[in-house]
Design goal:
Mean pLDDT: 76
Organism: Scyliorhinus torazame
Strand content: 5-15%
Distance between the termini: 13 Å
Radius of gyration: 21 Å
GO molecular function: transcription corepressor activity
Helix content: 25-40%
Pfam families: SCAI
Protein name: Protein SCAI
Low-confidence stretches: 238-266
Length: about 270
């Protein structure tokens, strides 16, 4: 991906998935040699593919490659940030291709939304990434993050193969005072990247004392530990995760796994 195509949301997700650097001094042997005592058996950070405005075929190609390369005891993480595609009508049977999804690049000049609306209602939008398009990849653990105006389309995601499955969906509407802030990046992605920074942004606070910041970070780390403890000890969390659909605009299924891949649409 080119630097000019690195959006702020993509940058934040990259940072969220990067592991903290290891202190090299702790890896030096006792003789003072500059060579580490042991070479790492695997890459320190998850392998990632960054796709900016990909077509459906490009996205599916990289998804297939990532699925093939996924090592054992790992999970495929897919992050989608794209324009929502909404269903054009009601069907007698609502399947995984009847709720719409997110729009991929159609290799044409934009103005494409008018083309989508004028398309024959009896056909599905061919450039839409539907929930059903991910079903083949649920044969392995999958963590799906969708940031879109139609993220709710993925709420009815079906776990066909009993593998760990996580669907983390953005709200479809934001408070009125925050609707004009999209040029600064998605608020949903900002909360994933740094919850404390997102909270300050919502409160219109531009600065904080370092001592207060450190104290708030300690509270956040405690919350993370408590959540992880509850999830790992809970008897209600099965292979498919736990579904929290109390917010009709947001569904979350949590299963703690290792991230392996990020995808970006715009």
């Amino acid at each position: 991906v080119k630097f000019s195509e690195l959006t702020i949301d993509m940058f934040r997700m990259l940072q969220a998935l990067e592991r903290e650097p290891i202190n090299l001094a702790s890896q030096l042997n006792k003789t003072g040699s500059q060579e580490p005592t042991e070479k790492p058996s695997k890459r320190e950070n998850p392998h990632k593919y960054l796709l900016y405005k990909p077509t459906f075929s490009q996205l599916y190609t990289f998804l297939s490659a990532s699925f093939k390369e996924l090592p054992g005891n790992s999970v495929l993480l897919v992050y989608l940030s794209a324009t929502g595609v909404f269903p054009t009508g009601r069907c007698d049977y609502e399947g995984p291709y009847d709720f719409g999804g997110v729009l991929t690049n159609n290799n044409r000049d934009a103005g494409s939304m008018e083309v989508i609306q004028k398309r024959n209602n009896s056909f599905k939008e061919m450039h839409c990434l539907h929930p059903g398009d991910f079903f083949p990849f649920t044969r392995k653990p999958l963590f799906l993050i969708v940031d879109s105006s139609n993220s709710i389309a993925y709420k009815n995601f079906i776990n066909l193969f009993g593998q760990p499955l996580v669907c983390l969906l953005s709200p479809t509407a934001y408070p009125k005072g925050l609707q004009d802030q999209t040029q600064r990046g998605s608020l949903f992605t900002l909360f994933l990247y740094n919850p404390l920074m997102a909270f300050l942004f919502m409160c219109r606070l531009t600065s904080m004392r370092k001592g207060m910041w450190d104290k708030c970070q300690e509270y956040l780390h405690k919350i993370y530990r408590d959540i992880a403890h509850l999830l790992t000890k809970s008897r209600t969390v099965g292979p498919g995760g736990v579904d929290d659909s109390s917010n009709p605009a947001q569904t979350s299924k949590f299963t703690p796994e290792k991230a392996e891949m990020t995808e970006k649409l715009q």
